[in-house]
Design a protein that fits this description.
With 216 residues, this protein is α+β, with helices and mostly antiparallel strands. Helix content is 28%, strand content 47%. Strand 3 and strand 4 form a beta hairpin. 27% of the residues are buried. Pfam families: LmeA (PF11209).
Length: 216
């Protein structure tokens, strides 16, 4: 009986040590993954990376992580001189495959959201225009004493537009020109934008993708 008790105690101790080692390895891996993602994707700040599932070490041995959550803030997007700050990009990545030397990570599938605040939209539009929420899923443009409502739409799976600008007062039309649109570059390769909705917090864009590159 005494031998059995000793074995049970040893089993408990070893179990605790394994869990501790697993959690330490997980913490280190999440930090390293965040650094790698920042360097690879060009994020302006270090993203938050959370690796789900237990035990972690067995996932590493298989070089495939079941579920990874990433949140990146302050992403600079846009091309051709039209830049737009993305306040937050969050995504759940499933089936993340690691390369032989752990230098790259590619997810089988991903689902996420992009948030663009009205304050950041105001900075991105021509000077003199203020962008806000009009309610009922509409965006409000105000300038020169005029106010109009427009819709947030998507084009080509990568471009956010403030559409419905026809019929504006001439003074306001002169400010917006041919339209207001931004290509949301700067997101991980493989991510496609699916829909855009105006909310009280800003324009929320739903995104998803396959073979999404987290780091390379």
């Amino acid at each position: 009986m005494r031998a059995i008790r000793i074995l049970l105690v040893l089993a408990v101790v070893l179990g605790v040590l394994f869990v501790a080692a697993d959690r330490i390895a997980l913490w280190f891996a999440e930090s390293q993954a965040a650094d790698k993602a920042q360097q690879s994707q060009g994020f302006t700040s270090k993203p938050d990376v959370s690796i789900k599932g237990f035990p972690f070490l067995t996932q590493v041995a298989a070089k495939k992580l079941d579920d990874v959550h990433i949140t990146a803030k302050g992403i600079e997007a846009g091309t051709g001189g039209q830049t737009l700050r993305i306040d937050r990009f969050s995504a759940d990545l499933r089936g993340v495959r690691l390369s032989g030397n752990f230098s790259s990570a590619v997810a089988d599938t991903a689902d996420g959201t992009v948030l663009i605040t009205y304050a950041d939209l105001t900075k991105a539009v021509p000077s003199g225009i203020t962008v806000g929420y009009a309610g009922n899923g509409k965006v409000k443009l105000s300038a020169l004493g005029f106010t109009t409502t427009v819709e947030a739409t998507l084009a080509n799976g990568k471009t956010v537009r403030l559409g419905g600008l026809s019929g504006l007062p001439a003074e306001l039309q002169a400010l917006v020109g041919s339209g207001l649109s931004w290509d949301l570059s700067g997101l991980p390769t493989g991510i496609q934008l699916k829909s855009a909705t105006a909310t009280a917090d800003g324009i929320q864009v739903v995104a998803s993708g396959t073979h999404v590159v987290l780091a390379n």
